[in-house]
Amino acid sequence: MEGGSIYHMQLLKDKIRNDAKIIENRIIKVDNFLNHQLDISLFNEIGKEFKHRFANKEVTKIVTIETSGIAIASIVAQYFNFVPVVFAKKHAGINMTQDVYEAKIYSYTKEQEYTIKISKEFLTSNDKVLIIDDFLASGSALIGLINLLSQSDVEIAGAGVVIEKTFQEGRQRVLEKGIQLESLAIIDSIENGQVIFK
């Protein structure tokens, strides 16, 4: 791995170590830089890093889930020649067509099930899709998105995740689908309110 990559990882790890709030030794709250207030300069480094890790893949679209993934995916898209970003909607309004791909996901942080939807007009058999999301824990969101995408004829180029918690089974579930998975900060455990990185 080249020096730049290690630097990007360190930047993200330092941010998690210094700014994340740990709740009950299981929830990592990163809303002050990742999914409520957004650190755009960090997002730029994240975009560069995903481009580096998926450099050998052709990507025509980036797909994510609302809402936390949208900002990250939008910045990442700039490093893939400004490809369109499509996000799966959790709350489809009346203006959304009924012609959709959909899948169910369970949110452990919100303790509820959602049906995510993407309009069929935004996914074609020519698309090579890179999935981008903020977190990987149980894998419910990513697997739901993969299941949704598998209903279309797109090719999944890979999945990029900003923060992964390895002490939940998400990674294995994604790898079993045969998809390249790249996580930028991998957390092995949380002990006494401290994040332990892999």
Compile the SSE list and pairings.
Blueprint: H1 3-19, E1 21-23, E2 27-29, H2 40-53, E3 61-65, H3 68-78, E4 85-88, E5 100-107, E6 112-119, E7 128-136, H4 140-150, E8 155-165, H5 170-175, E9 181-191, E10 194-197
Helix pairs in contact: 1-2, 2-3
Pathway: Purine metabolism; XMP biosynthesis via salvage pathway; XMP from xanthine: step 1/1
Subcellular location: Cytoplasm
GO cellular component, one term: cytoplasm
Description:
There is one protein chain. The chain has 198 residues and is of the alpha/beta class. It has a single domain, classed as 3-Layer(aba) Sandwich (Rossmann fold). It has five helices and ten strands; from the N terminus they run αββαβαββββαβαββ. The strands form three sheets. A six-stranded mixed beta sheet has the order 4-3-7-8-9-10, with helices on both faces. A two-stranded antiparallel sheet has the order 1-2. Strands 5-6 form a two-stranded antiparallel ribbon. The mean pLDDT is 91.
Largest beta sheet: strand ordering:
4-3-7-8-9-10
| SSE string | HEEHEHEEEEHEHEE
Rg, alpha carbons: 16 Å
| End-to-end Cα distance | 16 Å
Average pLDDT value? 91
Quickly count the helices: 5
Taken as a percent bin, the fraction of beta residues is: 25-35%
Q: How would a crystallographer describe the biggest sheet?
A: 6 strands, mixed
Low-confidence stretches: none
List the main descriptive attributes of the protein structure presented here:
198 residues; alpha/beta; Rossmann fold; 6-stranded mixed β-sheet; two-stranded antiparallel sheet; 10 strands; 30% helix; globular
